[in-house]
Amino acid sequence: MTEPIISVDNIHKSYLMGKExxxxxxxxxxxxxxxxxxxxxxxxxxxxxxxxxxxxGLDEPSRGHVIIDxxxxxxxxxxxxxxxxxxxxxxxxxxxxxxxxxxxxxxxxAPMILAKVGHKERKERTLSLLxxxxxxxxxxxxxxxxxxxxxxxxxxxxxxxxxxxxxxxxEMTGDLDSETGFAIMQLVTTLNAEGTTVVFVTHDPRMAxxxxxxxxxxxxxxxxxxxxxxxxxxANEDAANPDNQKTDSGADK
Length: 253
Description:
The chain is α/β, with parallel strands linked by helices. The chain has a domain at 6-101 and 148-222: Rossmann fold, CATH 3.40.50.300. It has seven helices and ten strands. A six-stranded mixed beta sheet has the order 6-7-8-3-9-10, sandwiched between helices. Strands 2-1-4-5 form a four-stranded antiparallel beta sheet, with helices on one face. Helix 6 (178-193) links the parallel strand 7 and strand 8. Helix 4 packs across helix 5 (148-159).
């Protein structure tokens, strides 16, 4: 049996608020297999974004372990962790996090420069990625010259720059209109079908319907019975239809 690409073991996380430690995660354990398409849902304060950030190595647990593709994040130095993030994970954020003074092309190139990819390969891969997200004709435009959906597509291309096996998204459609949000999720679904493991957080049950697994969180824990196959859609056909207005996904609102 192959090892899961993501393994979270008894993760706890607390934050200091004055002199008081406020728990955000309370003993979360979770396994995600290679090629999974997983959505974390739950009300504000449930711990879903904290869990996502810990999986992505952007935050560290107070105790517990996170194994990413065989590497224990807790045991890594800051430099080793940065290299692992660069090689193994691509991040897509709600506010895009593009560099305002960089063109779309330069934003996509940036992670490859950090990874010391050669100039010719970098240019070829950047063009290929921008074509993949339908923005080859916007390569020399700055973020301020692009719509929200176009900026998010650039962010997806950037996240894929170093061909990471894991794609992590935090409310990646939250600032977009429904039609654009569905288009972004259809693109992510295609990437997942090509083998990329996807883990994302959303408040929108319509976007959650794209996932193969829904994991509901409450009060820093995974709800009992959560993490099962997503039965809210059939082969993602309903989720791919922008006219689908289902709201009964079993998600906490």
